Amino acid sequence: MLGELNHWAAGRTADVARAAVNIAPAAFTPGQVVCAGVDYASHPGEGAFDVREHPPGPGFRTRAVTTSGSGAVAKSPEERRDAHSAAARDRLLLSMLPALLLFVGLLVGLFTPSSVRPIAFLATAVVSAAALLHLKGTVLTGVGACAIFFGLIMRFNALRDGTAYSELATLAAIAAFAVFLNRLLDRRAHQLVQVRSVAETAQLAVLHPIPRHLGHVTLESLYLAAAAEARIGGDLYEAIRTPHGVRLLIGDVRGKGLLAVQTAAALLSAFREAAHDAPDLPDLASRLETSVRRHASQYPGVPGSEIAERFITALLAEIPDDEPVVRTVTCGHPPPLLMHRGEVRELQAAAPSPPFNLGMLVSDEYHVDLAPFHPGDQLMLYTDGVTETRDPSGAFYPLAERIRSWSGEAPHHLLEHLHRDLVDYSGGELNDDIAALVARRRPGLSTK
């Protein structure tokens, strides 16, 4: 994000103004989700979509994006079933560890001299049960460990050995503590699931599913949340059919958390309203700048909200119905990629504008860049989380180079390739939110 702002500011001599935003109240529905993307299905017809939790029926198509921790992997339904099966096997094996330790402790007690007592194995079994099993399993493991130790005391006629009783009391205390620890871990895990679910719900409330078809354009979107704990981000995108053609928006709010999501929601609301009426992209960008600035000015003193650093890099694109072109306005955002007959090139802005909420820094009008956009061509809009992905050596992800071999793929296949390649390139460590939007002009339509 800062790299994009510096790129814009390199040719300017102005002081950086800051902005203010507010956290608006919102209602969320917790669910049993760690962090997931959108499972959505789109009608083949124009501009229709439906969000579903279950596999769609005939005429629908789904693509799921799943994230966990700092990495993310896009999976087909078959891959998700395989992953669930593997996870179930891993959980089963881990749940057997306490029983295995109890068994080892029993063998050590039976087949070693009486002076060698297996309290270490039994205590480890009890503590591991607290972390791996539910409450009942933890209690049974503790009772079993104490029973085994007491049985060994009786077998070796150590009933008068004070040390043995001291060790048994220690084991019983460890078992009691394990029960308490199990309850504490279960409560914390439940809270973490709810927090992450709130983060996911907030993100999905902002990012509506994109229709697969808008007019003569086929669309596909991708969103990956880095989601460390509840650290949701402010990446955003939208596509709307207007009298002027299909208009696209992608942006990135500086910062993380619910405040970033709320700021993104404000920009998206302004775009959804103004996109239909604005006669051109400069006017649309001016309206968005005004709306974001007005929104920020309402809350000049919210404590702890990082108001002074709140701005939004964004890129607007317009694909008219009757011309084989694409128009773009860049507001401190990474340049889009144009894919034409196997070639990929960046559409660098001739005169980039500042990010939204920093527009007061300059008096220049917004500049429109024009590029050919023929049937079969594809346009990719993305946030800096894509190009700032690093490999283990620290090298940035070369998006234009890597995507060249997939440029002829359909939009959803292209994004699936991109998703997997980002994960492979980063070694599974995606440290920033990622959003991408691909638009493809469908052939067979009359254009000038």
Short description:
The chain has 448 residues and is of the alpha+beta class. The protein is built from eleven helices and 16 strands. The strands form four sheets. Strands 6-7-16-15-12-13 form a six-stranded antiparallel β-sheet.
Explained architecture:
With 448 residues, this protein is α+β, with helices and mostly antiparallel strands. It is 41% helix and 20% strand. The chain is built from eleven helices and 16 strands. The protein has helices at 2-9, 77-95, 97-111, 119-132, 135-155, 162-206, 257-274, 281-297, 384-387, 399-403, 411-426; strands at residues 40-42, 49-51, 62-63, 65-68, 71-74, 213-214, 217-224, 233-242, 245-256, 312-319, 325-331, 337-340, 343-346, 369-372, 378-382, 434-441. A hairpin with a 2-residue loop joins β12 (337-340) and β13.
Structural class: alpha+beta
| Helical segment count | 11
Number of strands: 16
| Global Rg | 28 Å
Q: How is the main sheet built?
A: 6 strands, antiparallel
Sequence of secondary-structure elements: HEEEEEHHHHHEEEEHHEEEEEEHHHE
Strand content: 15-25%
Average of per-residue pLDDT values: 78
Strand order of the largest sheet: 6-7-16-15-12-13
| Shape descriptor | elongated
Terminal residue distance: 38 Å
Uncertain runs are 5-74
Kindly state the percentage of residues in helix: 40-55%
